[in-house]
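Handout for the seminar on molecular recognition.
Each group receives one record of this type.
Step one: identify the two inputs.
Step two: read the structure output and locate the region that could contact zinc ion.
Step three: write two sentences on what you found, then compare them with the reference statements printed after the record.
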Amino acid sequence: MRKNFWLVVGVVVWWGLGAVSGVGAQGETAVFPITQNQARLDFPETVTFAVMVAEDVPIVSAVLTYDVSRVSCLEAAAQVPVEVVNNRAEWTWVMSRSGNPPPGATLWWEWTLTDANGRSYTTPRQTLTFTDDRFDWRTVENERIRLHWYKGETVGPMLLESAVAGLKRLEDEMGIQLQGQVQFFIYGSSAEMREAVLYIQDWAGGVAFSDYNIILMGVPPEIAESWGRPTVRHELAHLVVEQFGRSCVGGHRPTWLNEGLAVYAEGTPDESILSAIEQAREQNSFEPLRSLNGAFPAHSGAANVAYAQSYSVVAFMLETYGPEKMQAFLLKLAEGESYDEALEAVYGLNVDGLELAWREAIGAPPRDIPPTPTPISPDLIPTVPPLPGPQSVPTPEVIADVPTVPPPSSGRPVVCGLGFIPWVLFGVLMVRPGRGRKRE
Ligand SMILES: [Zn+2]
């Protein structure tokens, strides 16, 4: 009797195991003899994936799964069923339909294959780094910043040094840390840079892909010192602040804050900033701060004052109240609070109160807060087409072979929740003595 009991248990266990592992043929996992598994990049147009299995395992279906590594609120890999012909599957991702990831981005892929017996096998994940192989890139880096360039012997080291100094200022004086490593790709001209990005405005001199921690800039060696240096710091600041306040709940920041932080990160303000502040103070011509929440004026003189004023307000906030409050303010905004609510919560002031405190600190007369803020016509503001992800930086105007066409002026003004505000500073920085170039 006892012997029969164990016999019964044994049969049940055997059946149970059979059911759990799957089986028989259906759904069984196996390792298939892969004879080819590759992704071929034709940058920036296509990526062609191909997989092939040895003939003795006849494949009936293939599903490609791939994704590009990036920070995103919606993480979803693409899955593509691909026809199998002669035990081989091939599929091409045509990036002209989707927009292309930037150089330096990394893609992973795997194939899930099923054979005629119903067994399936998923290949180990493989990766591919997007490279723009038109140029012989050189790289300088430290542990935080990788900078690639190919034109001008001293350009790479010079711009890396500038980026490192900018990052130090962000971290020391604002307490805002870069997350991960950022990559710069410094093209020898804005035209060469634009060829690396499908769907880019023909005026763009730089593009920031903040989801990828990657910034592309076109920096001709002859303006690397004058335009490249401050612009690298400015763009890096936008990216780091964007990371710090990254939000999936729709939080955004006022333009004066974004641009003020970025100009602050450039380092000691140049003469043009200081003289614009001084002049506006003497003439009592600052804009109401509230009117700088959104788009900056398109008119170059007014925009110059807007940048200078934004810098001055941010410097006042950092130097008077400290970096911790700035961080708290950025995080409140990321949570989706309004500008006034976030300021009240952290500083006990709304935008108007902050403006009054700042005016007093710099010796400007108090301003009567108008009942309705002065709006700036959105029609005047050049905008960026809604390419997801990257945001563009205008090309510096001083180089003869660089187009100086302004961006289109229709559509909604993009107040850059992503940190980059591309439409500003057209014709702005070029009026600044000493710097003579615009950036975004
Ligand atoms: Zn900016």
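Reference statements: The domain at 138-431 is CATH 1.10.390 (Neutral Protease; domain 2). Confidence is low (pLDDT under 50) at residues 1-24, 371-390, 397-440.
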